[in-house]
Amino acid sequence: MDKHDILNFTPEEFKEKMREIKELPYRAAQVFSWIYKKGVRDFIAMENIPAPLKDKLSALYCIGNVSLAHSVRSSDDSEKFLFKLYDANYIESVLIPAKDRRTLCLSTQVGCKYNCLFCASGSQGFKRNLSAGEIISQILFIQEKFKDKITNFVFMGMGEPFDNYENFKKAVKIMNDKDALNIASRRITVSTSGVIPAIEDFKKLGLQVNLSVSLHAANDKLRSALMPINKKYPLEKLIKVCEDFFETTKRKITLEYILIRGVNDSLKDAGDLAKIARRLKAKVNLIAYSSICRGDLAAPERQVIDTFIKALMRYRVNVILRESKGKDIQAACGQLALMHSENH
């Protein structure tokens, strides 16, 4: 790429860029207002910017470098967007409506290196990290398409956000900055499979961003089989850093738990999960497994799910069963990108 993506810069960073090209720093706020408040994607259309500066900006920068390759809408009104990147890689975002919420699920990597047994993103391998600008581009495109306000933002799409920590962190700062997207941090959730050093750093940021931990098993043997990252960051160390996160931020953690038939859905599993949840004062989000690329895995029967939920409730655990959205449009992370890559 010859031009730098302006979406990679925080407002403060772009002020410095203005100084470097002998422009007054306040011009940065004017440019960002056109991009983030008024949805303008062309420097020439920025009315209060002098023509010579427009020419400089047009020569040096682009405003986003992703394009929509495909979109598909589910019968439940979920909508998936397949974006093509400048290097012909593909990523996905999903907009999920639910009552008074519209939640945007964002990707942070092309593929994923962690290869969790139940995830389509990992099955295509890891290709590269997304830049902060490529993360922000997903938001800007979908905000422009849907005039209704997006209420929540979750980093639960393709990739492990904390494996791309610096770019993720910068994207969150741009999202939260009043001179950029001005999104309240409490409306942002990041989901991690348990990258301990990033969790330790994340708690120091001072942002009230919500943390979800993809647990999916409550003992090391099973979790290591489902999620190879557990071999590097085992459960007890992960639980301890989560305790520290809660003590530092006072923000309750959510434990994500995919129920897989005959694998992690027993009453013993429920009891072990309850111990962790109560230790962390965490709530539990359950979701039944959706068949993605492993035909030998399946969701439990509804009776088993209900029994699992009742067991958690007996242990006084706050538990929610998340209904899987967009099954008819391959809405699980990485499915559409994987299909598209295989066909091209």
Short description:
The chain has 344 residues and is an alpha/beta fold.
Verbal overview:
The protein is of the alpha/beta class. The protein has two domains: 59 residues, DNA polymerase, domain 1; 276 residues, TIM Barrel. The chain is 38% helix and 19% strand. The chain contains 13 helices and 14 strands. The strands form three sheets. Strands 3-4-5-6-9-10-11-12-13-14 form a ten-stranded mixed sheet. It has a two-stranded parallel ribbon with strand order 1-2. Strands 7-8 form a two-stranded antiparallel ribbon.
Biggest beta sheet attributes: 10 strands, mixed
The CATH homologous superfamily of the largest domain is termed: Aldolase class I
Q: What is CATH's topology name of the largest domain? A: TIM Barrel
Q: Which structural class matches the secondary elements? A: alpha/beta
- Along the chain, the helix and strand elements come as EHHHEEEEEEHEHEHEHEHHHEHEHEH
Spatial shape:
elongated
Number of DSSP helical runs: 13
Query: How many structural domains are formed by the residues?
Result: 2
- The portion of residues forming beta strands comes to 15-25%
| CATH class division of the largest domain | Alpha Beta
CATH architecture of the largest domain: Alpha-Beta Barrel
Helix coverage percent:
25-40%
Radius of gyration: 21 Å
